[in-house]
Amino acid sequence: MEPVLPSYPTRKKVQEANCRQLKKLMGEAHCYIAIDSGDITLVEKLCLFPRTLDLKVGARVILLKNMTEKLVNGSAGIVKSFVKD
Description:
By secondary structure, the chain is α+β, with helices and mostly antiparallel strands. It contains two helices and four strands. The N and C termini lie far apart (about 35 Å). The model has no long low-confidence stretch (mean pLDDT about 90).
């Protein structure tokens, strides 16, 4: 059985918890930076996604948006590797 993931009342608290958990993992972090368009104030207010996302192998991830029929909002996984462009 997988451990229960806690929930937090604000995005800031989620980000703080994510940073704490990421620091526990060994290895190099890979940083991804969002490319946003439109009214940036509105994007920052309404967007669920962080502007930067640090990941490491072993990090638990949860989708926040449907991508395909099988990869949907709430789907969870673990980062296994990174692919270079």
